[in-house]
Amino acid sequence: LSHIPQLAATALMDLVGGRVGAEALALAGRGLRDTTRLASSPADIWRDITASNHDHIARAIDELVAILLRLKPGNGTAAAALDSTFDSAAQWKRVLEREVKSS
Predict the structure, then answer these.
(1) How far is residue 60's CA from residue 78's CA, in Å, rounded to a whole number?
(2) How confident is the model at residue 58 (pLDDT cuts 50, 70, 90)?
(3) Number of other CB atoms surrounding residue 36 within 10 Å
(4) What mean pLDDT comes out for the span 65-73?
């Protein structure tokens, strides 16, 4: 379960940092900081993890990319995809929070 959040946070920080630079990052809000918390993890640990779990990780990356492509503006179905993805995500987030509280 930790593979995709780690890789997504790292890719997002690489994208945002490379696109806006250090000065603009000083203006970043809490959402970006929270979302990219994992981006400071050491690559050597993740090199081994991704090598030993490559099939599962490759499949999960493909699924994440497919979701992001459905949300891409201009594809004709982005509005509906946005609604259903946000609704589903909120529902699963509530489940996750219940599970965390009960453990």
Answers:
(1) 21
(2) very high
(3) 20
(4) 93
